[in-house]
Write a structure and sequence with these properties.
Layout: H1 3-23, H2 26-64, H3 69-83, H4 95-119, H5 123-127, H6 129-164, H7 168-175, H8 185-191
Length: 203
């Protein structure tokens, strides 16, 4: 077999492989997988932003409501539990780890909500400028979490659809692509509503 024929066969083989990979969804997996990773990174970024607000928020509340030790302890412990978990990109490929992480985030959100409810009993606290600024930042962060989470949900839905539909599902089996974990209905019910921040009775 001469060199020209070998080159021709090699080129033809490469062309066929390229066409196959394009037609079987391989490139779609690459694109959608990267989008899922990017959207999950943004969810984590906003979760971290929320966690960073908590120490100053707790310290401010403590200055006015030292008797609310239980609520302050709960939110501090909830933040600590979230911080001790490894929120790596690989987390979205481990359903059990993902479930535990989201449960910890939900617990932290619940503690924050209780803290904001407690603050309603302290007019002086609600009038504190630092507390008001932190509360506004918290509310804004919760809204960002909602937006980031919704983007992640859509990205995962698109990726999972590719994994499960024919003929892409054949490619997924060959290359080991599996459906990724998404937020459940229960998750949505818990985290859909930001913590209530009201200052109607501020004095």
């Amino acid at each position: 077999m001469n060199l020209t024929l070998k080159r021709g066969l090699t080129f033809s083989l490469i062309t066929l492989i390229t066409i196959f990979l394009q037609g079987c969804g391989y490139n779609t997996f690459q694109t959608t997988d990267e989008q899922v990773k990017a959207d999950w990174a943004e969810v984590l970024n906003q979760y971290q932003r929320r966690a960073d607000l908590i120490p100053n928020l707790v310290a401010t509340v403590q200055g006015y409501a030292t008797q609310e030790k239980e609520v302050l302890t709960q939110i501090t412990e909830a933040r600590s539990r979230v911080g001790s978990m490894q929120a790596t990109p690989e987390l979205i490929n481990d359903p059990e780890a993902f479930k535990k992480y989201i449960a910890a985030q939900n617990e932290l959100k619940g503690s924050l909500s209780r803290l904001m409810v407690v603050s309603e009993n302290y007019p002086a606290l609600k009038s504190d400028q630092n507390f008001r600024d932190l509360s506004a930042q918290l509310e804004g962060t919760e809204n960002r979490i909602t937006v980031a989470r919704n983007r992640y949900i859509k990205a995962v839905q698109e990726y999972n659809l590719s994994v499960r539909t024919f003929p892409n599902n054949l490619t997924a089996m060959v290359f080991g692509y599996k459906a990724k974990t998404n937020f459940t209905v229960e998750n949505e019910a818990v985290i859909a509503k930001p913590p209530t921040v009201q200052f109607n009775n501020a004095k």
